[in-house]
Specification:
Layout (H helix, E strand, L loop, with lengths): L3 E5 L8 H10 L10 H9 L4 E3 L11 H10 L8 E6 L1 H12 L6 E7 L23 H6 L3 E6 L7 H10 L4 E5 L12 H9 L2
Parallel strand pairs: 1-2, 1-3, 3-4, 4-5, 5-6
């Protein structure tokens, strides 16, 4: 059996339905499909892994409890030695879940890419159900190979979010980039691939 990767995609939250409806009415529309590292690139570079990508509920108006339920429904299909990746809202989801719960499978490595930490984002809400507790120690207790990736030119995740994680996760590895095309909107991500394979 191939080693497994469980990837949790990003999403958005809104404090009110009015905010959500306004977003739908005013958001930018793009019809071209730009390549992103979490699509064909990741599949090609990590073809020796079984990559599992759950479609999390209502990603554009996400509720933590709904994501938690859906995430836990996948547990029966996960083997020991899984690699966990969370991008953006998926990153704070894994941070919150692993800091509040003991995952029943052994985790080989955890990778949080541009995760928000608190509700001080640029132009986006982070609702109360997503907020982290002060102690994130359970994350490092459950996995000694924890990586967080931040871009200093990220228009969504300010540097203060990175600093909050650094205060709480003293044993983790932080990968800081001057530019990762903003919110890691890049076609390739060599460091992520390398760090995953390091703990194969």
């Amino acid at each position: 059996m191939k080693p497994q990767i469980l990837y949790i995609h990003g999403g958005m939250t809104f404090k009110t339905r009015e905010h959500y409806i306004n977003y739908l009415k005013t958001r930018s529309i793009r019809i071209e499909n730009l390549p992103h590292w979490n699509e064909e690139y990741m599949n090609d570079e990590l073809n020796e892994y079984q990559i599992i990508k759950p479609k999390m509920p209502c990603k554009e108006n996400s509720k933590y409890l709904e994501w938690k339920i859906h995430f836990e429904r996948h547990t029966e299909f996960i083997e020991d030695g899984v690699t966990l990746i969370g991008f953006s809202l998926g990153g704070i989801f894994l941070a919150k879940y692993l800091s509040e719960n003991l995952y029943p499978k052994k985790i080989k490595s955890v990778h949080l890419v541009a995760p928000p930490h608190e509700d001080s984002l640029t132009g986006e809400d982070l609702t109360e159900d997503w907020l982290l507790q002060n102690d994130l120690g359970k994350i490092e207790e459950q996995c000694k190979n924890v990586y967080l990736y931040f871009s200093l030119d990220d228009p969504i995740i300010p540097e203060s979010q990175k600093n909050k994680y650094q205060e709480k996760l003293k044993k983790s590895t932080f990968m800081i980039y001057e530019s990762a095309n903003g919110h890691f909107l890049q076609p390739e991500f060599e460091d992520l691939i390398s760090n995953i394979k390091k703990h194969k």
